[in-house]
Each structure stands twice: as structure tokens, then as C-alpha cells.
């Protein structure tokens, strides 16, 4: 089974969704046969290529409610064992990081890409990582067991720009407007940082349906938060089902 996860490093719900999906995958009997690939998506493709404090960026967009939005995400993250320290978060255009993730996928495979994706999310939201800083991106790659030299050489150039921007355009054409979005076997779609139990049900359902002709059924759950166009929706209450 192939699962393609469309997400952005700048998206807190993508961090939550990854943790919940991986917990579901660990409980899924067929986990060894599941290939997970991370696909690029940019909530703000026009974001300037320079570091900016998260608090300032969010306040400029949403005013006084920005702090409450961050507090809700921080609480939800803590329940998943994730740290969100928005006082240290630095925003930047995410294209460079997406290009690196694609390079790692092509060069080292999907397992290495997943490790790097997790490291980038952890460092971005908890350690003040500037995802536009080439040296720190290389540090992240080394931290998950990759060789610095090829990664640094890639980051010094402009490789995979067309491929990654093309993938981002394809995501929009597929109707993906919010992230995270999980696409199973190119047919079944789950949107948002769903509860672990929802992801597990989706894995089980797709395992049963694989090989049948199904026209884009969508598995949804009203409690699954997502981010779209820079805005992150936080459900009033979260609970397992």
C-alpha cells in the first residue's frame, strides 16, 4: 500500500497529523507493506525568503486571536507528545526544505525522507529552526543519519525546483487545498490531522478495498484540524472515536 502525505513544514497540523498517522501505522498489522511518501505543499508560496518571527507573522494576519490559536495547538501537541514553542518559531519560505525532502526521497528512499520530515518538523516548531538556512537544513539531515557532503552540495544549487513546484501545482489540481492530506493508493483521501483511530480505520479499509474500482471516496472526521492558505483551523474539542 502506498500513502502519499501532502504537507508543509510550516503547518502545525501536519506535525500533529504525522504523529497520529505513525501511531496508527504502528498498530496496523500490514505496516511492513506500507510505503509512506511525503509530497510538497506550500500554505504560502509567496512567503518571502527571509526569516521572520512567527509571533509577528501571525499577529499581522490575525491580530489578538493569534495567541489563542497558538495556545490551542500547543495543548493539542502536548497530548501527542509534541513540543510547540511558538516564541522561538521562525517562519520562512518552505520551498528549499521541500526540495531537500524530494532529494532525500530520490537519493536515500522513503524511510530516510520520513526521518528527515520528522526532524524538520520537530526542529521548526520546538527549536527555532530556520527552514531557509542551508547549514541548519544540512545539520538536520546529518541528525537523521545522512551524509553532509551530498546534502550540502544539493542545497548549494537549484536542483529539483521545477519538479517540486510541479508537484505542488499537481496537488492543487487534485483538489488538495488544505493540509495535511493523506492519499491512499492514489484513490482514497483523508484530510486533516485526524485521530489515530480514524487513520487506523482508513488503513484497514484501504487494505480491504485495494484492487477494487472506487471513485475517489473520501474518509473524513469532523474533528480533524487542517491548515489552508496560512490559516489553521483548531476544533473546539478533540476526542478519540
Task: Explain this structure.
It holds the Pfam family DSBA. It comes from Streptomyces fildesensis. The chain is globular. β6, α9 and β7 form a beta-alpha-beta unit. It has helices at 12-27, 54-62, 65-79, 95-108, 110-126, 134-143, 148-155, 161-173, 196-209, and strands at 2-7, 35-40, 52-53, 90-91, 181-184, 188-191, 218-219, 227-228, 231-232. The chain has one domain (2-232): Glutaredoxin (3-Layer(aba) Sandwich), CATH 3.40.30. 48% of the residues lie in helices and 12% in strands. α1 packs across α5 (110-126), α5 crosses α6 (134-143) and α6 runs antiparallel to α7 (148-155). It starts with a strand and ends in a 9-residue tail after the last strand.
CATH-defined architecture: 3-Layer(aba) Sandwich
Q: Give the amount of beta strand, in percent.
A: 5-15%
Helix amount: 40-55%
Q: Quick one: how many beta strands?
A: 9
- Whole-Å distance between the termini? 24 Å
CATH superfamily: Glutaredoxin
Number of domains: 1
Helix and strand element order: EHEEHHEHHHHHEEHEEE
Structure annotation, total helices: 9
| Backbone CA Rg | 17 Å
Gross morphology: globular
Please list the strands of the largest sheet in the order they lie side by side: 2-1-5-6-7
Domain DSBA-like thioredoxin: 3-203
Organism: Streptomyces fildesensis
Protein name: DsbA family oxidoreductase
